[in-house]
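for the recovery benchmark. tokens below, seq after
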């Protein structure tokens, strides 16, 4: 290859290093990435569109399906928006239950991510060990909600289930389990020389880039941006818990904004979540778990609302934002969701510039992307594709692909 010559390669939308479809169009010189363009829009589930054809109580169940890993955050945000429009006051005990559920979800998400990161580095034995640790939080979640993944615990005006004092022991047992295993996790991910070589000074996101690109969550905090909705706009039980945004400096004594720092922040946040859950158990107030126990009454109160509001929550990946507008009809007039990957995905551009091709998987994984949360479908000019036309276009597309490269593609106009 002549000096200065660049080539283009596409990573994705289907690639072993990507857990969901997204395309990274990389311009490379030798083994070095010179520039990246990001191509989204391979996933459309029309959840927002479906939500505008359901009443608010039904949308709660739909919101939970936006993300399998962090589903509390979406139901919580949507319910906050409805409660704001309706003027519903959530009981204090429900706020604490919501917070415990959210922090258990954070532990689950961060440990799951650690396993994925190990896999991207080629350490499947570490992935299996990490996911073995993850089982404890899944068992605890199932014990409290009946489900390991979809919790179905948050509802408009409170929660569907209580956390009784007789259940506190199991939760404390899980908290002690992660306290005892924290040093082991820290040593595996931060002291292993191979992981350190693959993560230190790789995928650097400078603080000013994190701010200008509006990065959120661990991605922003690992670059020294002390941004956390639980701290900045405290909600649920967080005003009573004194949450502080975590940066790598607390553990490492410095901030470089690389993959290594993003690992450190997530590990520290597992320990922080344990502490927050323990505080919630200690300070749990007595009282109701919902403003109204009869679902029919809740539906009557919310299905003909007028007004608009937002819901915000610090999800494991960063801030989740829901916008809701009601105009006196049974269904929402508008419902828009902004998941944290939408903010963080542009961070890939400065992170990957100057990286080696072999670094692309771990750098991409370091923001903990969720493409299904990110992509949304919008209807332009009132055009909708019905089942018959979608099926016809799919058949045409498949036939054209079978003809091989260079063949005429199906007309999707």
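predicted aa per position
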């Amino acid at each position: 290859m002549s000096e200065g010559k660049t080539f283009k390669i596409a990573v994705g939308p289907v690639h072993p290093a990507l857990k969901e479809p997204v395309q990274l169009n990389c311009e490379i010189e030798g083994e070095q990435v010179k520039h990246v363009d990001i191509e989204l829009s391979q996933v459309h589930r029309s959840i927002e569109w479906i939500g505008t054809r359901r009443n608010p109580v039904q949308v709660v169940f739909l919101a939970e399906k936006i993300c399998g890993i962090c589903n509390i955050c979406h139901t919580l945000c949507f319910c906050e928006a409805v409660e704001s429009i309706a003027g519903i006051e959530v009981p204090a005990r429900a706020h604490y239950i919501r917070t415990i559920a959210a922090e258990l979800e954070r532990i689950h998400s961060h440990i799951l991510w650690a396993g994925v990161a190990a896999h991207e580095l080629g350490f499947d034995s570490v992935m299996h060990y990490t996911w073995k640790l993850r089982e404890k939080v899944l068992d605890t979640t199932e014990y409290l909600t009946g489900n390991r993944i979809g919790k179905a615990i948050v509802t408009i005006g409170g929660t569907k289930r209580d956390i009784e004092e007789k259940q506190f022991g199991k939760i404390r047992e899980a908290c002690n389990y992660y306290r005892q295993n924290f040093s082991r996790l820290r040593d595996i991910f931060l002291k292993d020389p191979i992981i350190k070589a693959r993560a230190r000074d790789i995928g650097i996101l400078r603080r000013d880039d994190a701010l200008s690109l509006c990065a959120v969550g661990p991605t922003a905090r690992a670059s020294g941006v002390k941004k956390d909705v639980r701290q900045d706009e405290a909600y649920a039980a967080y005003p009573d818990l004194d949450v502080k945004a975590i940066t790598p400096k607390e553990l490492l004594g410095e901030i470089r904004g690389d993959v290594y720092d993003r690992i450190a922040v997530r590990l520290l946040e597992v320990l922080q979540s344990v502490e927050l859950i323990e505080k919630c158990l200690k300070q749990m107030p007595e009282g109701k778990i919902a403003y109204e126990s009869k679902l029919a009454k809740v539906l009557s109160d919310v299905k003909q609302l007028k007004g608009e509001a937002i819901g915000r929550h610090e999800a494991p990946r960063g801030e989740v934002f829901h916008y809701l507008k009601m105009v006196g009809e049974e269904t929402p007039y508008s419902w828009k969701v902004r998941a944290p990957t939408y903010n963080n995905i542009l961070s890939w551009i400065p992170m990957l510039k100057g990286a080696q091709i072999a670094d692309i998987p771990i750098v991409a994984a370091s923001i903990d992307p969720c493409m299904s949360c990110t992509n949304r479908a919008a209807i332009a000019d009132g055009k909708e594709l019905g089942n018959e036309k979608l099926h016809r276009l799919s058949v045409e597309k498949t036939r054209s692909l079978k003809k091989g490269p260079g063949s005429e593609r199906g007309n999707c106009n």
